[in-house]
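Quick illustration, no need to memorize.
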Amino acid sequence: MTRRASAGLILYVLTVSLAGIDWLESLEPDFHSSIYGLLFLSFVLLNGVAFVVGVGIWFGLRIGPIRGYSALLLSTILLWAYLHAMQYIVIWSANIPDEVTWYLERSTHGWQYVLVVLAVGQLIVPFFALLNERVRADRRWLAALCGTTLAMRCCEAAIPIVPPLPHAGPVAVGLMLPAALVFVGGALWQVFGTALDRPGRIVNPSARSARGAIG
């Protein structure tokens, strides 16, 4: 498992970086950022950490000391924030019109409020919450922060995707994003549920009944 995971992580980083450039950055061909692949990788990494830790707590899996997973979530959030800050600083200091326009388009028409929600919900609130010793050691607090992180991924996904679409009005966005979330999320949940049912996983006795109730 260790050898497979090590090789898989290398392949995963390369393919996810290329996917982010091909799926998202290509929506605006005039925009270029050398760190865009890492930004998408941090998006996926933060989503995966929050999902796995949150599900582990929800199903009562024996995932070890909660403080360690709180530190893992905080470290991933800081990495995500650092990469976004670096892209913003480099693009704004270079003052290249095609790149600066990318931020200007996302600072008008209501998108500035989405950016504020993302900054507050994904960085400010989790950062100061996880600095508290009581929060870091509490399963319920950590589960809530993981849920907030997953909700913020929807906001972050809309920011690079929706503005360049020519006919993406509020109605189209309101229908498109929930439908994509239900379809892709449902497919991934089926795969994850199959992995949970594999023999050998260690789980508290109450977890199976909780999972059955949710299913």
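Residues 32-208 form one domain.
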